[in-house]
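Weekly structure sync, notes
Attendees: PL (lead), two postdocs, one rotation student
Agenda item 3: pending single-chain targets
PL asked that the sequence for the first pending target be pasted directly into the notes so everyone works from the same version. It is reproduced below exactly as submitted, 494 residues in total.
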Amino acid sequence: MPAQSNDDAPKTPDPPDRTDTAGPTAATADVVGTPGPGGSRPPGPAGRPGSGRRRALQLAACAVALAVAMTAGAVVLGSRDGGGTSTVASAPGLAPELLASGSLAAGISALQSHLKAQPKDAGGWATLGVAYVEQARTDGDPSRYPQAQRALERSLELSPGNDPALAGRAALAAARHRFPEALEYARKALAENAFNERALSVRVDALVELGRYDEASEAVDEADSRRPGVPVFTRYAYVHELRGDVRTARRVLEQALAGATAPGDVAYVASSLGQLSWREGAYGKALAYYERALRADGAYLPALEGRARAQAAGGDRAAAIRGMEEVVARFPLPGPLVVLGELYEARGEEGDPAKARAQYALVDAWTALARTNGVNPDLDTALAAADHGDRGAALRAARAEWERRRTVHTADALAWALHVDGRDDEALRYARRATATGYRDATFLYHRGMIEHATGHAKEARASLSAALELNPGFSPTGSALARKTLKALGGAR
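Predicted structure, written out during the meeting:
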């Protein structure tokens, strides 16, 4: 890779003989984007007479639809490139034999056959467990997590303390949003092998998701000194972005992309750059990065979702709706479901309100499925329900998540849940905390501005809403419009 321009940047990686990558954090990758805010305070469905029974029936129907979508996604495991070959963005710790063909489905099938013949292969069980975690992440199907847990436990029964299985347990815990557990398993794995790349990466993930940013910075520097490469570089970039150092984050990701060779690595890093560009309001640049990602892997979910978001922000609503419909048809995750619902709301054609409600109901169905399979979805629940569901449930979920981990994202979620519940004085404290690290997110600024407006801080509200729209004017199909309307009422941009 090109030489870095400062001393604190990541080191040049070893030769690309490994295939380890993951998202900025494994947890945030699972969520696949924060749902865009709606900004209004509609009464939750539970607040309308007779709505409980209707809600239950609707959720039952949505659960069936979600199960069908999950089953359809499981038929095409991984993603497909233009030639029809199933590919996967390489994850930390996946064994070379699993990815030799580029096919996650084929790799899992081969491992299953191997383990039938060699059931005492501890390494094989560890690799299978990790593959199931990756399958759950890429397909949005949390039902794979119990399978992953059983495979990893089998590996540890056969070979107690083996670091690949411990690192796999760390990744599984992170995917389920159990971050203290993820941190503990990562540390156990590193005690056995200080150079285990998956464990080094998940340790950073867990510290970030627990809001322990200073420790995360130290951990990513240590990971860079031990195992420099794409997984560490992406985490290095994200830790810097959380502190508002977008310039370093972009430079590191660009250098990671320049050095990426595997299609999965190219797709992941290019999508990360697309997301960074979108958050900065550079929609043309974001679309270019997403197209590069899709050239590497034509069905890479973050790139498909990101492209639709960038199209929506750039004014091409029809393309955005088509793209997001494609995403949720295969992967009905909370982020895409909420964005698609808001796109329907913004379009406002006949039948669109019902279509939007159907997307929001599917979020509840996904949440129930996630809980059944050991995933903690409270952050997703809080954000989606605050704008499009039961505000009481939103507040309960946000408070519970804040007690578990105190990050900028949970502070923002709690602030917004308090706001929609009419507790604006309490909300303001959390909104300010969400923006305190310098992390540049238009949604956070929008939430803070609306809360400042509600509490009578007109000057501050004007500044926050102006900053949100200057940074990323198309941050949400519905929230952006409300931000403009509120800002106009306040006398226009600062």
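Discussion points:
- The beta strands are 79-80, 86-87.
- Residues 51-75 form the longest helix (25 residues).
Action: rotation student to compare against the earlier draft before next sync.
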